[in-house]
Amino acid sequence: MLVALSNTPRDYAWGSPTLLAELEGRVPTGAPEAEVWFGDHPGSPAQVLDGSGRTLDEWLPTTPGAPDRLPYLLKLLAAGSPLSIQVHPSKDQAVEGFAREEAAGVARDAGSRNYKDDNHKPEVIVALSDTFTALAGLRDLDQTRRLVDALGDDEGVRELRQRLADVDPASALRAAIGWALGEASTPQIEQIVEAAASVTSAEFAAEAALVRHLRAEYPGDPGIVVALLMNLVELRRGEAIFVPAGVLHAYVAGLGVEIMAASDNVLRGGLTPKHIDVAELLGLVDFRPAAPPRLEPRADDSGVELFAPGIADFALAHVAPSAAPARVALRGVSIAVGVSGEATVTGASGTSVALAPGQAALATADEGPLVVSGGEVFVAMPGE
Q1: Torsion angle (degrees, nearest 10) of CA 246, 252, 254, 256
Q2: How does pLDDT run across 68-101, given as a tens digit for each residue?
Q3: Is 268 a catalytic residue?
Q4: Out of 54, 237, 268, 294, which one is annotated catalytic?
Q5: Which residue, of 78, 116, 157, 167, has the fewest CB within 10 Å?
Q6: How many CA atoms lie within 13 A of 202 on its CB side?
Q7: In angstroms, what CA-CA distances link 240 with 72, 76, 104, 129, 250?
Q8: Up-side HSE of residue 210: CA atoms within 13 Å toward CB?
Q9: Structure confidence by residue, pLDDT tens digits, 172-229
């Protein structure tokens, strides 16, 4: 079965008022539009355009050959201002944390709730805008120390420098983040932020510009200090990062297509007015410094790229615009979304769906391989 899907944008405050409208070729509404969800997540299930009036979470359990729930959620994400710094738990951590909060009677919609479900939430984002800015993972400690050394000698800077002095990089970064989020005073945070915003080192010009941007959006937020310890990543269109459990990250600006495991488990680490559970956060973060977690696709003989991080929940195929049709093998129920041009997706049954940018369709596994012609399409599917 091949059927069209639709959904309305989520109006989170960090959303862009223009990026999704420009993608879809329509007049902006003037309101922030942050995400369009193409999946069966109960937070915003897609509408199935088969005349039934059902949402995808209602449609899947009644459809032969389809699972009751999808293991992934596909999104278009448009960041007009920075999202919160966050981390997601592993599967084992999510199971334990969810059970703990259920036993304690914490309401699932409580602001202090950390675990909304018992699943992990690894995710991949592929840039659709010319550039997509993100923070992902913790920077090499020697480089971070050079940055902090360029910030002068105010009390807050000295305190941060002291916590970064541990010979073990993970211990040093854990101490610095724990201090910034849980112990540092407001004046100490402001001293670090002011020094970083004014730094003249050419090596850290991009970081200084980011701090000025974050300061304007979140004045006095200790998450700005956390951001100073993270990798600043500038993706070009078509480039991707993979964020597994434990990796601190924040999307700063740009338009992307995102796929993740079907979960709503988010623990925040700054750049937000929402609840931050510092102790729980510190128990989840992987504090080992590493290079930005870029994900390179692999291409098949027909030129279809596959962003596959090697997990069971999802993989994301990319079909570039081409005069020749491309064939996309399916591993289960899949969702295709158009992102440029006028694409046509045809299943094994002979059914076709036209996809303009921002439009989506669901294909059951027996419709594979999908034949994609015309425009540019991403296809979400279960992983390896």
Answers
A1: 10
A2: 899 999 999 999 999 999 999 999 999 999 999 9
A3: yes
A4: 268
A5: 167
A6: 0
A7: 17, 14, 39, 12, 14
A8: 25
A9: 999 999 999 999 999 999 999 999 999 999 999 999 999 999 999 999 999 999 999 9
Residue 269 dihedral angles phi and psi, to the nearest 5°: -130, 30
| Same-domain check for residues 256 and 360 | no
pLDDT band at 384; cut points 50, 70, 90: confident
Name the band, by pLDDT with cuts 50, 70 and 90, for residue 340.
very high
**One-letter amino acid of 103:** A
Of 275, 167, 285, the residue nearest 230 (C-alpha)? 285
User: Which residue from 99, 81, 74, 80 is spatially nearest to 89, judged by alpha carbons?
Assistant: 99
366 and 311 share one domain: yes
Query: Which residues, in sequence order, are CB contacts of 219 under 8 Å at separation 6+?
Result: none
Q: Are residues 272 and 130 in the same domain?
A: yes
> What's phi and psi for 234, nearest 5 deg?
-110, 105
pLDDT tens-digit readout, 359-376: 999 999 999 999 999 999
Calculated CA dihedral for residues 66, 61, 10, 365, nearest 10 degrees: 10
